[in-house]
Amino acid sequence: MNIVKAAHLIYDYITQDDETGEETVSRAIDDVDLDISAGDFIAILGHNGSGKSTLAKHMNALLLPTGGAVWIKNMDTRDESQVWDIRQTAGMVFQNPDNQIIGSIVEEDVGFGPENIGVPTDEIWQRVNESLEAVGMTEYRQHSPNKLSGGQKQRVAIAGVMAMRPECIVLDEPTAMLDPNGRKEVLKTVRKLNKESGVTVILITHYMDEVILADKVFVMDDGKIVMDGMPREIFSQVEMLKSLRLDVPQVTELAYELKKAGVPLPDGILTIDEFVQALENVKRPEISNAQKKEGDAHVDPS
Amino acid sequence: MMRDITIGQYYPAPSVIHRLDPRVKLVGTVVFIIMIFCIGNLAGYVLATLCLAGLIRLSKVPIKFMLKGLKAIFFILIFTAVLNLFLTPGTAVFQWQFIRITQEGIVMALKMAIRLTYLILGSSIMTLTTTPNHLTDGMEKGLGPLKKIHVPVHEIAMIMSIALRFIPILMEETDKIMKAQQARCADFESGNIFQRAKSLVPVLVPLFISSFRRANDLAMAMEARCYHGGEGRTKMKPLKYYSRDYVAYIVILIYIIAIILLNIFFDPIQTMIFARLGL
Prior knowledge:
The structure holds two protein chains of two kinds. By secondary structure, chain A is of the alpha/beta class. In chain A, the strands form two sheets. A six-stranded mixed beta sheet of chain A has the order 6-7-8-3-9-10, sandwiched between helices. A four-stranded antiparallel beta sheet of chain A has the order 2-1-4-5, with helices on one face. Chain A has eleven helices and ten strands. The termini of chain A are far apart. Chain A has helices at about 50-60, 85-90, 105-115, 120-135, 150-160, 180-195, 230-235, 240-245, 250-260, 270-280, 285-300, and strands at about 1-15, 25-35, 40-45, 65-70, 75, 90-95, 170, 200-205, 215-220, 225-230. Chain B has a domain at about 10-130 and about 245-280. Chain B has helices at about 15-20, 20-35, 40-60, 65-70, 75-85, 105-130, 130-140, 155-180, 195-200, 200-225, 245-275, and strands spanning about 90-95, 100. The relative contact order of chain B is 0.14. Residues about 1-5 of chain B have low confidence and may be disordered. The interface of A and B includes residues 88, 105 and 115 of A. Chain B: Pfam families: CbiQ. Chain B: It is found in: Cell membrane. Chain B: GO terms for molecular function: transmembrane transporter activity. Chain B: Belongs to the energy-coupling factor EcfT family. Chain B: Its main location: membrane.
């Protein structure tokens, strides 16, 4: 079943010039079709201004389409009577952890969502306990969010969404403001939720290494989806990604460069382990051959 | 260090007063303050003093913390006392050129000083024993009936609790902006008060802009989590009255009645006793 579906989605931002009052229309999303099936781990990639955040906000009915339509579990986001059901089905985690935590105590913040949808008190507690457990923040339940690290705050925010029992979580650059450790924590949590609770995850990011474990990747540029497929398929097109101002993971780029230099490596190497494996499979003389070639390349310019 | 700042002046201690329902404490404080201004004679003040002393003992908050609150109003206290002392007309006990101190003036000055002191002490007991969150919860629930006349009680409480949550964040941000500007040779420490206030303007502008951005983000995050006002909202930690709260209400009621009775009956008794003693 498709949990998120978009057809011919168009969204225009209208900006008004302060002095002249002239209105300019800029198209943030341009004719996007999207089909996401339940239980998947989806990544949406794109550099700044590619429209990926705008797309994310459509999945939560925070923005409504200018043209086309978005359906969350067959509910049209334009239907105002269903807006709370939609937001309950597709939870959203934002970039800045400070600006999305409402409660002054961790457990109160997690309970905020269930309170809003009118869950009875006993069940709120049960849901809060479960959600905190799921993100591994139970021991911090009595803490003030101000004293947590960025990664911990973001996990609290995820717990806050989980407490509403969503079927799908949209994470809008959840790691952009975190340090490497915080990023790891958050990604681990998200992956665990996807695997263990079967929640559909839509991860929006511009970090390439975060999307390696996704089931499917969409790449956006200038409001359009320009590439889609398995991570391996996407990352085998290094040139294309570079033209979209996206970086490939370091190891993928190294493999790509080696291949260009003549080492017979497969396309789309994603992890270091894979790379080591692939290198071992390459026969020795060919390596030395390739090294020679590279060596030549080094000598040439001088 | 800015993160550890305590908001309000909550003093954690395991006391009955701490465990009371915030609504009881709110009502009690309001009653106490109103009654201070209704007391008509010495016996009333004695009773109020006894009650206050008892409450402070019960709350297990060191008296030092209570008196801290008084420091802030020290000047107002002196000011009102002095004004009352010199400007109340009546029989003079001391006169030197245009300065005139009257008997009524002394009584009035004392009264005002005592009233103000008790007012501050009474409300500090509440703020010292109740967390800000509890207080807003209590206000929301306690003022609930005002919803009928379209007072946005839930919204006000929500605004207050969000403000409380963002105070430390904004303070940290102020600190960051000031450091960033100091790194570029901004001077916040020298000059007179006007110059210093002026040098804060470049701090306030970015702070203002960023708080708007934060507000915008927060509003969106709240909407994404299905926030749609107080209607149909359940509570994770609903306020519930326990037997101790009912006892507290009864104590408050007894206090009101006692003050009123003292006002009515104490004066004749006092004159009677004084007459017997030949005073």
